[in-house]
Every structure is written in structure tokens, then in C-alpha cells.
Amino acid sequence: MTDVPATIWRASREIASSEIELFKKELDLEDKILKLLLLRGISKFEEARSFFKPSLDQLHDPFKMKDMQKAVDRINAARQQNEPYLIYGDYDVDGTTAVSLMASFLENHYPNFETYIPDRYREGYGVSIAGIDYAKSKGISLIIALDCGIKAVEKVAYAKSLGIDFIICDHHTPGLQIPDAVAVLDPKQEDCHYPYKGLSGCGVGFKLCQALATTWNIPQGETWKLLDLLALSIGADIVPMTGENRVLAHFGLEKINSDPSPGLEALLKTAGTDKPKLDIGDLVFILAPRINAAGRLDHGQRAVDLLRGKDLSLLPEIAAEIEVRNRDRKDLDRKIFIEAKKQVDENAADFKFSTVVYQEDWHKGVIGIVASRLIEHYYRPTVVLTRSGDKIAGSARSVVGFNLYDALEACEDHLLQFGGHPAAAGMTLMPEQLEGFKSAFERAVAERISEEQKQPIYYYDLEVTAEELDPKLYRLIQRLAPFGPENLAPLLLCRNLIDAGSRCVGEDKKHLKLNLVDEASGLCLEGIAFNLGSQLAVLQSGCPVSVLFHLELNVFRGQASLQIRVLDLKKDEELI
Predict the structure, then answer these.
(1) Is it true that 347-454 and 457-575 share their CATH fold?
(2) Which one, 100, 249, 435, 563, has least CB within 10 Å?
(3) Could you tell me which of 425, 420, 484 has the C-alpha nearest to residue 171?
(4) By C-alpha distance, which of 150, 136, 145 is closest to 118?
(5) Distance of alpha carbon 224 from alpha carbon 252, whole angstroms
(6) Which among 454, 356, 341 is positioned nearest to 2, based on CA atoms?
(7) Structural domain boundaries in the chain
(8) Does the structural domain 457-575 have CATH classification 2.40.50.140?
(9) 347: left (phi over 0), alpha (psi -120 to 50) or beta
(10) Do the beta carbons of residue 342 and residue 370 sit within 8 Å?
């Protein structure tokens, strides 16, 4: 049995009282909110004003992105000839929202297109030969690729040999060679001087829509109507919640909460959420898994059919179908995780720094989710592999701070192809490469991983007392939203709490329903701790405990109340 690593708690960067006092002269707010702003690198009045009051005026000129004018010129030339074109995107949330957003914008101005989502199992990730051949069979000579294409050098060359042009809208890390496309929009290109590098794939597509709207004298308000789709992509693709993304997510959430697109509204109804106001977390945990389920177990085109919402009468049926797929996905995820965990424990001697598991009959659609769950359990860079035709396909996930992409690059001799981010990636290999890849990946991780990256570390922002956990503090914290990478929801620490009847709840009793009393004030704190059911014995020992948590609003049967959502707990004596 592999030991689950112990967690480490640390305070975020220390903020000197003099730093807070200096900031207070510019911005007369409570010390706690000033500290939270300083932790986010905000120390000036103007910076704080922009942060607290996002404006669409803060968005950058899309023509600052390399090749944007080339992309617009090619689309203009096609539009003048009414040339048929293909809007092509990947099967995940970022890809399907990108295709839906682009199609929803263009159908009113240049509707001679088809949408195309590759089949996860027959074609795999990214631009496919089958997709290019489909375009050729339909007489299509222009493909706009969204959330993919930056490494499709050979496939773009193949398309060019057939007389098909490519416009690539991607946000993944480029390889050494850039595809020979008419235009390549990717802010991560070294020679692209676009001011913000963290856009999602859907975000890059949105910037193209903005540029087209400017060129065609269309009010930008028409692009603002699509921000709910873009907010969903920003949340689901785990891109930084800073700068332009934070502005786009802010207004996208406003759209979802006031006037959601018909497809998202149908999906929310089938999900059964009763929250009066959705946040980014709800997009990530309620909407995104359902959109992904279409591509995982059926076909991503169904998600596009839903998100475009062209035939309103079909939306309830599609949403219900996707809901069923999501339940099936959960069952598969649970089954494969149990099998994968058994493999890890049986082969513990071979893997000390990484986790690599393979079984040929695992469902390709859920192996990424299983990789994430294995990390929660073992906390190591993880690859989950399964058979896909005559090849092996895999999904990889990383621990905080470890660059997975670099480790895979060191193993490229054992791979047919790979791509992704520092935190998540996918790959294909031949069966005869499997054992070599396992060894190479273990070596690559061992050589690169630091001691700090071997244990989950929680950095808390504020230490608070039970008396301070009131609606006022909650409102202050919410002024920092929307939350996401590089602008995480503040993590709070509270000490000296005694159990007052906490219990295990949920399937397999994995979660804790918390009832804690503050020793000093006698105040009671209620909350939830997901996947911490094994810690009930610590609470029932009678020892005072400390908890790390987010302060949030719990809505039950229409009634809202504050609760703590605990990420970790320890005996007080362990922190001294």
C-alpha cells in the first residue's frame, strides 16, 4: 500500500503592517481586504479600482495579436466569394464552447459553414486527417481550427496539398515548428506581442470575433452576448483568472445569471441546481462535467448542438441525454479508479516519484478524470493509459508547480505524439513503447521534481477567529471574485475548535458534515469537508483542531446560510 503524503500548511507571503498602512492611505478599506489585495500584487489605488470594477474597456485590441489581420483578410476574401468553410474544434469544454461561440457569431454574417468536432475514439485529440478529408469531400477550402492546431504541422501541410487553408486559433504551447497556416493566432508564440498570454482556446476565438466585428462595423455588443460560453471555457480549462480572463469571466457570469443562452439554461434545469447566483465553481463542477460527458461517452457535436441552441424545441431532449451521459461517466470513473488504484498499490516498488497505470479496456473518455483522482490520493505526476485502436492513448495530470509538459518532452522518444499544458497533457504511443515510456517518465519526474512538490501544500491567506466569520467578511471576500488560478478564493485558518457532533455523510461515507465549536467564544461553525471522512476519528478524539477552509454561501431548499468548506484539518498540537 502506498502511503498518502501528509499535507503541509503555510502562511502566504508575509505582509508587513507598514505595507498595509501605506496602502491604507490610498484605499481606506479594512486591513483584511487590503492584505488580500497585496497578496494578489495589487498595491495602488488605480490597480484596486480596475480589479474591483472590471470593465469591457479593459479588453485589449484584438489586432495586437500576431496574424490577426491575416486571419481577418482571409475570412473577408472567403466571405466575398461565399466560400464554404469549416469551424473545427476539440471535443472538450474549451473546444465545444469555442466552436459554438464562433458559429453563433458568424451565422448572422457569413453562414456558409459547417461545424466539426472530431470523434474522441476514431480521430483523437486535435486536427485529424479524417476532418481534413471531410472538408475536402464537402468542397470546403478553409478551416478555422479552435483550441487546437498549433502543433499540427504535418496535418496542415496535408490540407494545403489538397487546396485547403487553415486559420489556427489556439492557446497551447507551440512546438519548435509552427504550422504553415494562413494565420496562426496563439498568444504563446514567442514573437506574438499580444499583452495577455493566458486566454483559453475559446478566448482566442472570441478575439477573432471581436476583430471581425470591428472590420464589418458590427456593434461589439453582439460579441458580448456570447460571454456566457466564454466564461464556461475559462472556468473549465483552468486558465489564469487574471487580467483579460477575469474581465471576460466577470461579464460572462453576469450573462449566465441574468440571461443565459438557451442551451445553458436547459442544462442548468436538468442539473437541478437551485442556487440563486452561479459562480465560477458552479461552472466548473456543474456545467463543465456535463458538457465534457457528451464528448467522453457520445460525441462532442451534441454539446455544440446544445450550446448553439438553434432549435429550441430540441434543447430539453439534448440536455436530458447529456445528463444521462454524465451519470454513466460517474459510474465508469468510479470503476476505473478502483482498478487503477489496485495497480498502483501492487506496483508500488516500481514507482516512487510518478504514477503510470495501463489497462487496455479502460474507457478513454474518463482516464483524465481518473488521473486527477489518483493525484488526490497519491499526489504524484500521473499518467493513465488505455488501448485506442492499434495504439495506446493516455491522459496526464500534474501536481502543483511541476511542469508535466517538460517531463513528457524528455520522454518523446517513447511517444508518437503529445501535447497540452504544464498541468495536463495527452499522448499516444505504440504498445511496444509502453514499458520504455513508464521507465522514462519515472526518471524524468525523479530528475525534475522538488521536495516541495512531493507533498500537497496549502497556503492560507488569513488566520481568523470564529467571531470574524460573519456576512461582512463574506461580502468582502466576494469582492475579489471571480476566482480561479492566480486569483484563488482566499483560504482561511481557524484554530481551537472542538467537535460538537460532526458525522460522515454521502456515498461510502466519504465526506464530513461538520459541527464545530470555538473554545473561546462558544460559537458554532457548520460546514462540509469533501473526501475527509477518514478524519472523523481526529475530531472525535476530543483534541482541539484547526481547519483550513473557504467561507461560502450554502443554499438548501431555497434558504441561504454561511458555511465553511474545509479543505484540511489537523490537531492543534500538530501546528505548534
Answers:
(1) no
(2) 435
(3) 420
(4) 145
(5) 8
(6) 341
(7) 62-323, 347-454, 457-575
(8) no
(9) alpha
(10) no
pTM: 0.90
Is the link from the previous residue into 62 a cis peptide, with omega within 30 of 0?
no
User: Contact 486/506 with Cβ under 8 angstroms?
Assistant: no
Provide long-range contacts, Cβ within 8 A and 24+ apart, for 381-384.
381/353, 381/354, 381/355, 381/407, 381/441, 381/445, 381/449, 382/354, 382/355, 382/356, 383/354, 383/355, 383/356, 383/357, 383/427, 383/441, 384/340, 384/357, 384/358
pLDDT for 97 equals 98
pLDDT of residue 4: 62
Q: CA-to-CA distance for 167 and 434, rounded, in angstroms?
A: 35
Q: Does domain 62-323 have CATH number 3.90.1640.30?
A: yes
Please give the grid coordinates belonging to residue 574.
500538530
Cβ neighbours for 156, distance < 8 A, ≥ 6 positions apart:
127, 149, 166, 168, 179, 180, 181
| Cell numbers linked to 297 | 461517452
177 secondary structure, DSSP code:
S
pLDDT at 98: 98
Cell triple for 36: 488580500
Query: Can you tell me which residue has the cell 479502460?
Result: 362
343 near 357, Cβ under 8 Å? yes
pLDDT at 576: 61
Angstrom distance (rounded) from CA 565 to CA 546: 13
Contact partners, residue 570, CB within 8 Å, separation at least 6: 7, 9, 538, 545, 546
HEC sequence for 182-212: CEEECCCCCCCCCCCCCCCHHHHHHHHHHHH
Show Cβ contacts of residue 65 under 8 Å, excluding neighbours closer than 6 positions.
185, 187, 192, 194, 204, 207
Per the document, the length of the chain is 576
Gap between the Cα atoms of 317 and 306, Å rounded: 9
Q: Report the top-level CATH class of 347-454.
A: alpha beta
C-alpha cell at 360: 487496455
Instruction: Please give the DSSP secondary-structure letter assigned to residue 287.
Output: I
pLDDT at 372: 94
